Amino acid sequence: MPRTLSPAVAAAGLVGGYAVARWTKKRPLGGVVLAVAGGVAAREWQQVGGGKVAAGLGAAYVAAFAGSHPLAKKIGAWPAVFSVAGAMAGAAYAVARKTG
């Protein structure tokens, strides 16, 4: 997998996880999408930058997911999800670019 895909995979996991949970009304199914995408991205982060990079970006991924909830109360669900997905993609791109 090309190294430039991890930012898109991480963002897609956040957006896709929310979309699946919302449209199927099955939150665990959205969690599966979130976890699978996070795992795929983390594998690439590990290959590109090692364990510390993967752990840091993995923590940022979880923080983005958690942070979208209180943010949604202020700006709405979809804007919050797209905001954290964009921030996560930017962080993943910046870190992977420096380490890759």
Task: Offer a few descriptive terms.
single chain; 100 residues; mainly alpha
Report on this model:
It is a single chain. This protein starts with 5 loop residues before the first helix and ends with a helix. It is mainly alpha-helical. Helix 1 (6-24) packs antiparallel against helix 2, helix 1 packs antiparallel against helix 4 and helix 3 runs antiparallel to helix 4. The longest helix has 25 residues, at 51-75. Helices cover 90% and strands 0% of the residues.
The helix content is: over 70%
Tell me the strand percentage band: under 5%
Shape: globular
Work out the number of β strands.
0
Order of H and E elements:
HHHH
The profile of the biggest β sheet is: none
Number of helices: 4
User: What is the distance, rounded to the nearest whole angstrom, between the alpha carbons of the first and last residues?
Assistant: 13 Å
Label the structural class. Answer: mainly alpha
Offer a quick outline of the entry.
This protein is mainly alpha-helical and 100 residues long. Helix content is 90%, strand content 0%.
Write the layout of secondary structure elements.
Blueprint: H1 6-24, H2 27-49, H3 51-75, H4 77-99
Helix pairs in contact: 1-2, 1-4, 2-3, 3-4
